[in-house]
Amino acid sequence: MKIGIDRITFATTDRYLDLRELAAARGVDPNKYLIGIGQSEQAVIPPTQDAVTLAAQAAAKLPAADLARVTTLIVATESGVDNSKASAIYVKQLLGLSDFVRTIELKEACYSATAGLQFARGQVALNPSEKVLVIASDIARYGLGTGGEVTQGGGAVAMLVSANPRVLEIGNHSVALSKDLMDFWRPLGHSEALVDGKYSTQVYIDFFQQCWQQFRLQTGASLADFSALLFHLPFTKMGKKALASELGERDDADAQRLWAALAASQVYGRRVGNLYTGSLYLGLLSYLNHGAAAAGDQLGLFSYGSGAEGEFFTGRLVAGFADYVDHPDAALDQRQAVSVAEYERLFNAQLGMDSADVAFDLDADPAPFVLAGRKDQKRQYQRNNH
Ligand code: COA
Q1: How many angstroms does the Cα of residue 36 sit away from the middle of ligand 1?
Q2: Which residues lie with the beta carbon below 6 Å from any ligand 1 atom?
């Protein structure tokens, strides 16, 4: 049975920061951000948005008939809003899904959406009528003035997983690898991540190589079998480093095809920034819309989450896939640019870890789902009345 991604959609906020302005404010050469890190813009997250509202935003772009058939909802996030309650429960409510839906949250840094996809495949294999909605939703926060600030961002990717998928059939063979490492983590009580950035990039490349070489050994695959290698992109330069670790200075047809595919996969991430769990899948969407993707092509995907876990797996594009993928270019173009001062104000206005009651001004956020505040230590979500 063929199982995989039947539809894929993406949502982020309605505002962004131009990283040339951030570079000026931080006294950094803008080319460090634009070329050295490979980021041009970054999604700015108002306090009325979080992993729950962004997840609902992405999923609400799916046709209502598809949402009505969802049997299991998996929200993959490392920006969880509660230590006990799954964000998927809030998302289910905002979307108006049937109460007879299994809802769960998964966590393992930027990797867990891939686990979600694999678990969804298992669910569908056991019962082919199952429709599993996997949403990767995160807000990447490192802190104002930190080294990781330029690799922040936020948004969500929603993927419907079913039998006979119309976008990407996921291959049965994959290689997963996990080790207990401290390259990036967020201790309880912290709303910003702690990271050993240079170490983290080394571990990422090491995990990619180990997973990919093991996959080659087990399957006999070679680079010639893939029209694209897609990577988790916490910042676009990371994909370049990973692909270079395999291609080196090669300039043959395989290398040229894979470099062109990587560039296509980086278009959206360069403008939105880090989606944590969703970054690999935003790269997939970017490649499908901007690359030389064709039906029957095989894609290699490398998922990485700090802490650390990696997985190399494959997918084959289905004829007609373009009709079932989101096209977010116009929405990205329509976002409003904000100043560094406004970005900093919004960054500091987020709900945070204390327990006081808060009521946010909802007039400033036109998104269909918003976090209205906190009352009696309960987060208040609602459909926006605009
Ligand atoms: N023009 C062009 N490139 C420039 C430049 C300029 N003026 N100035 C610096 N650069 C390049 C550097 O050569 C370097 O390139 P390289 O990585 O290919 O060697 C790159 O820009 C970054 O510069 P660096 O001095 O290493 O930056 P940094 O010390 O601020 O650290 C990160 C960068 C990415 C490590 C840091 O932003 C971070 O920790 N981010 C979070 C890491 C993360 O996402 N981890 C999770 C991985 S899954």
Answers
A1: 6
A2: 29, 31-32, 35-37, 110, 147-148, 150-151, 184, 195, 197-198, 200-201, 204, 234-235, 304, 306
Question: Which residues on neighbouring strands pair with residue 184, listed in sequence order?
Answer: 195
CA dihedral 265, 247, 153, 118 (to 10 degrees): 70
**b/e 242-254 (16+ beta carbons within 10 angstroms → b):** bbeebbeeeeeee
Does the pLDDT of residue 386 top 80, yes or no?
A: no
Q: How far apart are CA 68 and CA 63, in angstroms?
A: 9
Domains and CATH numbers, the chain: 3-167+326-383 (3.40.47.10), 169-321 (3.40.47.10)
pTM above 0.85, yes or no: yes
Catalytic, 78? Answer yes
Looking at the CA of residue 31, tell me the nearest atom of ligand 1: 1
Asked if residue 385 has pLDDT above 90, the reply is no
Say if CB 310 and CB 146 are below 8 A apart: no
- Collect all residues with Cβ–Cβ distance below 8 Å to 22 and sequence separation of at least 6: 33, 42, 149, 150, 340, 343
Distance (Å) from CA 40 to ligand 1 centroid: 14
CA of 39 to the centre of ligand 1 (A): 11
Tens digit of each residue's pLDDT (9 = 90 or more) over 90-148: 999 999 999 999 999 999 999 999 999 999 999 999 999 999 999 999 999 999 999 99
